[in-house]
């Protein structure tokens, strides 16, 4: 059930942005014990290079407040939409904030 609700939230964020994107990244996760080893950066760079190879001019990326979303800001992405969601209404401990980020590619590099 949580997966379906997350998909609905992501769809809401895309609609809220009122933009069309050439590509998207729905999930980028590195297991906690492997964080800090550069694996996330390698995966992100591979994704970025793939988009450049296929002439994508822009892309979106979904994340949430339980992730290292500042990493995407460090990479130059911009947050364009967010939505708060309580998995148990009225229980602040179940709050998650979902984010939509966008990035552009410099195809002349």
Topology (SSEs and partners):
Layout: H1 2-17, E1 23-25, H2 39-53, E2 58-64, H3 70-74, E3 78-86, E4 95-104
Parallel strand pairs: 1-2
Antiparallel strand pairs: 2-4, 3-4
Radius of gyration: 15 Å
Mean pLDDT: 92
Structural class: alpha+beta
> What does the oligomeric state look like here?
single chain
Annotation field: number of helices:
3
Q: Estimate what percentage of residues fall within beta strands.
A: 25-35%
* Number of strand elements: 4
Specify the helix fraction band.
Answer: 25-40%
Q: N- to C-terminal separation? A: 43 Å
Lateral arrangement of strands in the main beta sheet:
1-2-4-3
Structural commentary:
By secondary structure, this protein is of the alpha+beta class. The chain is built from 3 helices and 4 strands. The chain has helices spanning 2-17, 39-53, 70-74; strands spanning 23-25, 58-64, 78-86, 95-104. It has a 4-stranded mixed β-sheet, covered by helices on one side. The protein is globular, with a radius of gyration of 15 Å.
Keywords:
109 residues; alpha+beta; globular
Q: Could you write a compact summary of the structure shown?
A:
With 109 residues, the protein is α+β, with helices and mostly antiparallel strands.
